[in-house]
Amino acid sequence: MLKRRLTIFMLLSFSLIFAFTATAADYKKEYKMSVVVGPKLPWGAGATKFADLVRERTDGRINIKVYTSSSLMAGKQTNEFLIHRQGVADFCFASTINWSTTIKPLNLFNLPFFFPDYKALDAVTQGEVGDEIANLLSAKGVTLLAWGENGFREITNSKRAITKPADLEGLKIRVVGTPVFIETMRALGANPVNMNWGDAQVAFQQGVVDGQENPVVAIEIPVKIWQFHQYATIWRYVIDPLMLTVNNKVMASFSPADQAIIKQAANEAADEQRMIVRKGLIAPDLSALELLRSKGMEVTVLSPEVRDQFKAKTTSVYTKWIDVIGADLVKKSEKAIAASR
Ligand code: X2X
C-alpha cells in the first residue's frame, strides 16, 4: 500500500517537473513585435511600454523585442497581418488600415466621415462590434488583446487651405496602399498616390506630393509636418484605431499565469497610449492645434455642416464598401454610434 502510494507520488512529481520544464523550454528566447512607425512616436512607444511591462512581470520569461519602422515586412505595411499570421511577428501593435486589405471588415474604420467623435468610436470598439472583430481575428489566428489608437486622420498640404470640398480638387495626396483610401480621395476630387510610410516621409521632403493625411498628435507633430506643409484641415474623415495582438499559437504556448500578465499589460499600455494621442485636440484643451499654429501652420477646423458637404461627395464609397465590410456590421456600428449620442 505504502509502496504504491510512494510510486504514485513519485510519478506525480516527475510529471509535474516534466510539465514545468516542458513549458519553460517551449518559451522562445525572443518574441518579435511588429510596429509600422518609429520608436519615438506614441504608437511605437506604446509597443515598448507593453514589452517592458511583460518582461518585468514575467521576470524575463517573455522577452519581446519591438521591431519598428515596418522592419519585419521590408517596409510593406499592408503585409503585416500576413507575417503575423505566419508567425514572423509574434505580437503586433497594428493599425486597422494596414490590415484592412487582408481583413475586409476592418474597412469599417475607413468609411469616410462615419465616426463623428471618440465617444462614437469607443461605443463601437468596446461593444458588440468590438467583440465581433475580436472573434473574426481569432478565427484567422490572431488574438486581440487591447485597442490603442493612432487617431482621427487630418489632412495637411503645401498648396492651400482646405475649407470646402472644391479646395481639395486636383491635390496630389499620399495615402496608404489600401483601395478604400484611393477611392475616397478620388470621390473627393483629389489625386491620390499610394506609398508606404517610410517612402512617404521622403516624398514630403522632396515635395513629390502636395499633401497627406495622418493623426495630429500621433504622427503629424512627431514628424514635424510643418517642415513640409503649411495648411492643416481638421475634418476627422477617418478614424485609425490600433490593435495590440498576439499570434494564437504563441499565446497558447504561454502558461495561464503568463497569459494573464500579457492581457493586463496590453490593457495598461493601450489605455495609456490612447490617452496620450487624444490630448490637446478637444476644447477646452486645444494645445495640439495651437502647437501647429505656433509653427506657422494655418489650421482650419471644419464645422459639422461643411464636414457633411465632404461626406456627401463620398456616397459611391459607401455604396461599394458597405457590402465588402458586411452590411450587418455597419448597421450594428450605426446603432452603437446613435446610442452614444
Ligand atoms: O502610413 C501611415 O500613414 C500610418 C503610419 O499612419 C499607418 O500606418 C496607417
Textual characterization of the structure:
The chain is of the alpha/beta class and 341 residues long. The protein has a single domain, classed as 3-Layer(aba) Sandwich (D-Maltodextrin-Binding Protein, domain 2), CATH 3.40.190. The protein has 15 helices and nine strands. Strands 1, 2, 3, 4, 5, 6, 7, 8 and 9 form a nine-stranded mixed β-sheet that branches. Strand 1 (31-34), helix 2 and strand 2 (64-67) form a beta-alpha-beta unit. The chain is globular and about 90 Å long. The model has no long low-confidence stretch (mean pLDDT 94). The protein binds (2S)-2-hydroxy-2-methyl-3-oxobutanoic acid (X2X).
The CATH architecture comes to: 3-Layer(aba) Sandwich
Q: What's the main sheet like?
A: 9 strands, mixed
Describe the global form: globular
Kindly report the average pLDDT value: 94
Topology pattern, helix = H, strand = E: HEHEHEHHHEEHEHEHEHHHEHHH
Task: List ligands, each type once.
Answer: (2S)-2-hydroxy-2-methyl-3-oxobutanoic acid
Q: C-alpha Rg, in Å? A: 23 Å
CATH class: Alpha Beta
% residues in beta strands: 15-25%
